[in-house]
Structures are given as structure tokens and as C-alpha cells.
Automatic annotation (TrEMBL):
Protein name: NAD(P)H-dependent oxidoreductase
Domain NADPH-dependent FMN reductase-like: from-to ranges: 6-145
Gene3D superfamilies: 3.40.50.360
Keywords assigned by UniProt, alphabetized: Oxidoreductase
InterPro entries in alphabetical order: Flavoprotein-like_sf, FMN_Rdtase-like_dom, NAD(P)H-dep_reductase
Domain of life per record: Bacteria
EC code: 1.-.-.-
SUPFAM superfamilies given in the database record: Flavoproteins
Organism: Methylocapsa polymorpha
Keyword Oxidoreductase belongs to the record: yes
Single GO molecular function: oxidoreductase activity
Amino acid sequence: MPLDFVILYGSVRTERQGIRVARFIESEIRARGHTTALIDPMVYRLPLLDRMYKEYAGDAPAPLEQLANFYRKTDGFVIVSGEYNHGIPPALKNLLDHFLEEYFWRPSAIVSYSAGNYGGVRVAMQLRMTLSELGMPSIPSILSFGRVSSAFSETGEPHDPPAAAAPTGRFLNELEWYARAFQAERAKGTPY
């Protein structure tokens, strides 16, 4: 049974390389028969957080309303992030903070990347804490990619497909398991 995933990408730099990873993940999820929405802050251009979506009381700007609609129907979130000074990129944090209840009772999965060897794993630790607080706890596994500019083409094709396939497959298997489990429990009702 197909699932619906939202991919949240977190960079607005002009020379950003992580979009390659976001495109790769989007392609891999779709190849499994699922639907995706890739949320790119360069496209949505949300203002710095002044009011959360829920504080607009039915009169939210169109981009926030569109995102809320994506989030309400999704079965899980995939967060694709590099690390900025060992932390969460500001554009991603801003994108995340505009919402709250729309994330509840859905799992998240963290895909990190970097220009160097470590694959952005330090941001993953901070994201775990933030995502849990937002009501979308992350699955145990993290998928990380180092040397992102040489690992993927601009369109998101891995330069070494076998090296990317095995960890990505295991990661997405785990995400699907959690998404189906949360979906089944949401159908029964939520704690509040």
C-alpha cells in the first residue's frame, strides 16, 4: 500500500549541494511506489518566524496553508540537512518552527550530508531532539552522505549506485515500517 512522504530540505545557499541528496531520496521513495512532496525553502520562501501557522486562525498566507495541507495528509517526514557550524541550518529550523500539531503522530527520518567525510552526522543529533519536540520522533537509523558534490550528480543520481543502494534501502525499509505503524495507530485515535 503506497504511503505519502514529505521531504523537508534545509538550505538556501546559492551553491548548495544538498539538493542533490534531496532529489536522490525523492527518487528512491517514488521508485517504491510512494508519493512525495519535496519542500524546498528556496521555493516557499517563508518569512522569519513571527507567527506560527496555528496563530493565523484561518487566515494564514498561501504558502503556509499549502504546507499545512501537505503535512496533514503525510504518513512521515524525511529531513534532508547539512550541518552549519555543527548545527541545524537556519532555513530548515525556520521551516520546521512554523508548524506543530501538523507533525504530530508521524515518524521522521534524518538524511544528513556534508562536503567532508563525516556526512553531517552532528546535525542529526540536534535534529533528533528538535523533531521529537515537534511531535515527529525520528527513526533510529540515520542516512548520511559525505563528499556530497562528488557522490551525486546535480539531478541526484549517485556516482556509485551500489554504494548508495544498500544503506538507502535499509533506511527506507525502516521508515516504511514506522510510517505504517504510526498510520495504523492514528487510525485508532491519538492520545489527545
